[in-house]
Amino acid sequence: MISLNKKECDILILNEIKKGESKILEFKKEIQQGNNLLKTIIAFSNTSGGKIIIGVDDKKKIIGMPDSEDIIKLMEQIASTISDSCFPNIIPEIYTVNVSGKTLIVIEVSKGGLLPYYIKKKGKDEGTHIRIGPTNRRASKQDILELERQRQNISFDEEPDLFTDYKTLDLTPLEEEFSNIGKRLTKVKLKTLKLIIEKNNVTYPTKGLSIILGVYENCRVKCARFKGTNMSVFMDKKEYEGDLFSQLKQTEIFIKNHINIGAQITELKSKEIAEIPYAAIREALVNAVVHRDYSNLGRDIKVGIYDDMLDIVSPGGFPSTLTQEDVLNGRSEIRNRVLARVFKELGYIEQWGSGIKRIITSCIDYGLKRPLIIEKGDSVEVNIYRGKGKSQKTPEKRRKVPESAGKTPVKKEVAANEKAILDFLTKYEKITRKDVEELLTIKDRRAREILSEMVKNGVLAKFGKSRNIYYMKK
To answer: Where are the beta strands (DSSP E) in 184-260?
Structure first.
């Protein structure tokens, strides 16, 4: 135990009190009987560490310890209770500070290395607690398994997937991604990236490989466009499954189809200007897919588009050692190591810890309100606000020719057959080569030529393989 009464420490504690309770800070008006104090000690040890300040109420009012209390004896009792009641052993720092002329007791707990920690008399299953935002929550079996993985220094996606037969997996989406950057996906590469594990001469996929290929039920993204600024009325909704790369492409297309696109005339050319920078959209989607919690099998990523913003919610709070302030300052901790390695090698991730800053910077540079990136319970929510952007004119409907087109040269009007394809996609969202043949009454070869040209020109995006190839608006 130590006693600190230095002015610097007092000021530091006062500033923390002003911020209010959080993932790493809790107030208690007085020492409480029962397990309330122990739950917080346990939760801090299992999560990010933190401080308990005794003598402050939940409205941030500084009460202080009663003058009649024997502070030294009280601190000794707290230390003894923690030692006797918690397992594995927790040794916090306990000290006093003087703020506004009143004495407070501070219990400072570090994140432990022998996870999970729990209240002895309740046992591991019922006595383990974790910190979610400013509250404590009894850990589920899933939470306890994650804590045990942290103790062993392995991630969920590095574990072998013993229930999926490697021979049945179609690696084509992953192979194509590596081919796009001029690399081959060999068995050696699969091992190096920890996408497969060999045990007793049997090859198993890791959970990371199964996640990337979309094997699990929760590997999906649900998208919706709502009317207004709440969820009362649906205008459109889609659900995307399959490999993560296809999900990213399809979700990006969904978003682009539901935000305003304006036109800017520069150097005698018409240039589309979206109301949200594409860089921010892509970065937010990649972050959600790569860093979400896949161990929670009952939840998926949700993308909502409202009149005022784009909202992306991914399951799982920030990694347990990180606070919101840490994340906004560029500090990173990788939850899914296999996914992170693969997406980094493929170029989806430029630099560790730079994604959040890139989202914020790109929006601010675009003239938009600063995005809100916040941990809400055990989810992370990204709000990107809609607007015109610095250089954008009044938003028009997507692909609408600007009014100035009569005076300034613009792109040539699309051919009638391409217009027919785009009209078809507006109604049905997807189109196949066979659909084009029937729609335009043309032969197979000509249909392929038209579709290839539209993909080359960035009008369409191609998905699937072999007989299952289809196209969507880009």
So the answer is: 196-199, 202-205, 221-227, 233-240
Kindly state the tokens that stand for 64. 């202080």
**Which residues, in sequence order, are CB contacts of 152 under 8 Å at separation 6+?**
none
* CATH top class, domain 222-406: alpha beta
Domain boundaries, the chain: 7-152, 156-212, 222-406, 416-473
Q: Which residues contact 75 (CB under 8 A, 6 or more apart)?
A: 1, 94, 95, 96, 105
| All residues at 6 or more sequence positions from 84 whose CB lies less than 8 Å from its CB, including other chains | 120
Select the CATH number that applies to the domain covering 416-473 from these four: 1.10.10.10, 3.40.50.2300, 3.50.50.60, 1.25.10.10: 1.10.10.10
The distance from CA 276 to its chain's CA centroid, rounded to whole angstroms, is 19
Q: How far is CA 337 from CA 7, 155, 166, 243, in A?
A: 43, 6, 20, 17
7-152: what fold?
A: 3.30.950
Q: What's the angle, vertex CA 336, arms to CA 332 and CA 339, rounded to 5?
A: 110
CA-CA distance, 60 to 73, in Å (whole number)? 25
Q: What are the angstrom distances between the C-alpha of 279 and each of 16, 252, 286?
A: 35, 11, 11
Looking up tokens 């402050």, which residue turns up?
Answer: 56
pLDDT per residue of the chain (474 residues) written in tens, 0 to 9: 444 445 667 778 888 999 899 999 999 998 876 678 999 999 999 999 999 999 999 899 999 998 878 899 999 999 999 999 999 999 999 999 988 889 999 999 999 999 999 999 999 999 999 999 899 999 999 999 999 999 999 999 999 999 999 999 999 999 999 999 999 999 999 999 999 999 989 999 999 999 999 999 999 999 999 999 999 999 999 999 999 999 999 999 999 999 987 655 555 555 667 899 999 999 999 999 999 999 988 899 999 999 999 999 999 998 877 888 888 887 888 999 999 999 999 999 987 778 899 999 999 999 999 999 999 888 999 999 998 544 333 333 333 333 333 333 333 334 688 888 888 887 777 888 888 887 887 888 888 889 888 888 888 888 877 777 888 887
| CA separation, residue 4 to residues 95, 96, 104 (Å) | 6, 6, 11
Residue 25: count of CB within 10 angstroms of its CB:
18
Q: Strands across the sheet with 50-54, in order?
A: 25-28, 50-54, 102-109, 93-99
